[in-house]
Amino acid sequence: MQQAFRTRMWRRGANLEGATANFVETEQLVEYEGLTSSFIQVRGSIPLLWEQIVDLSYKPRPSIIEHEEMTKVVERHFHDLSQRYGDTMVIDLTDKQGDEGNLSNAFAAEMQNFPDIRYVHFDFHHICRGGNFDNLQVLYDEIEEAIQKQGYFLMNSKGEILLDQSGVVRSNCIDCLDRTNVTQSFLARKSLDSQLQRMGALSSAESISQSDSINDKFKKLWVEHGDELSLEYAGSYALKGDLVRYGRQTLPGLIKDGMSALSRYYLNNFHDGVRQDALDLISGYYTVSKSSSSPFQIIGFESAPYLPVASAIIVGGITVTTFTLSQVGRSAQHLISSIIFAGLTAGVVALVKANGKQLCSRPRLCGLI
């Protein structure tokens, strides 16, 4: 249940049917001496009607789309989850401050209409600040009883079902990528301990962290899992991979995260509109009609081609302004030149900022459907 094929900024939230962007079911499977066990979790964008349109800023402001069927959308989403998985528990990892906090508060308010669904907010950035991954234990302590009640699947070598998972945890942050992956890996680790203890691979007092072989395989799987989902949705490797692999942030990890963040910014602003069109066309989400004109036909002013020119003027303006400022002591003419070039540069920057949405790559086939 997801909004067709998607790229990060051009598929956010839910559609009117309750299908959400980046909805992913993750099943962790383990086999031991004829026994097979699995633990399922799901993730998905906040199931409200909202958008986050790229506009050249690093973090475009998310905005909620006012619609009379908002509560119905949420109801349809969770009805589908209950039909598939049974009891559903929601873990919301978003911030409680700023624009993200507004979206989080709107989600929490909607969840009050569904008392049968447990909603848990966990401010990941605040509680785990500084890369303190171990603080997720605070979340687990709060939901441990419910997690154990939902259980996991266990089958013997004869195909007989010994245990069944009776519900699912639905985790989300804003992108349902980095914070979500760290949290899901933490819950998966706790479940794997229980599974292996029940299967006899570990004693009741042991955990996979005491086995280098199992622990390393587990961490590698979840790091690669996070990377694959991030590459599909955002076009870059996942952030916070160090928290899954090492339980802490490392310098190489910070550098890798920085490169991935820059890559996401570039792709979101200048590439994903075309990519979304390609996905919609190949998947059949957009149907070509002989009678309609090409959606790629340029009508009126097309601002995107002017971005390289504007960028060159800005870089050139900053360079000339810096040079003339360094020469101010020699003559008043250099001061006047500095003021002129600084004003020109500021004007171009303001113009680019004001037209940020038009300068970005936008999908033309299905828009924001």
General form: globular
- Termini separation (Å)? 15 Å
Specify the oligomeric state.
Answer: single chain
**Tally of domains:** 2
The secondary structure category is: alpha/beta
Helix residue percentage: 40-55%
Number of helices, where a helix is a run of at least 4 consecutive DSSP H or I residues: 12
SSE string: EEEEHEHEHHEEEHHHHHHHH
Query: Average pLDDT value?
Result: 85
Cα-atom radius of gyration: 25 Å
Please count the beta strands (DSSP E, at least 2 residues each). 9
Largest sheet: 7 strands, mixed
Uncertain ranges: none
Q: Beta-sheet strand percentage?
A: 5-15%
How would you explain this protein's 3D organization?
- This protein is of the alpha/beta class and 369 residues long.
- It folds into two domains: 24-260, no CATH class; 275-359.
- It is 48% helix and 12% strand.
- It is built from twelve helices and nine strands.
- It has helices at 70-85, 98-111, 124-127, 136-150, 178-199, 212-233, 241-245, 251-270, 272-282, 307-326, 332-354, 356-359, and strands spanning 24-32, 35-43, 50-51, 63-64, 87-92, 118-121, 153-155, 161-163, 167-172.
- Helix 5 packs antiparallel against helix 6 and helix 10 runs antiparallel to helix 11 (332-354).
- The protein starts with 23 loop residues before the first strand and ends in a 10-residue tail after the last helix.
- The model has no long low-confidence stretch (mean pLDDT 85).
- This is SAC domain-containing protein.
- The chain crosses the membrane at residues 306-326, 332-352.
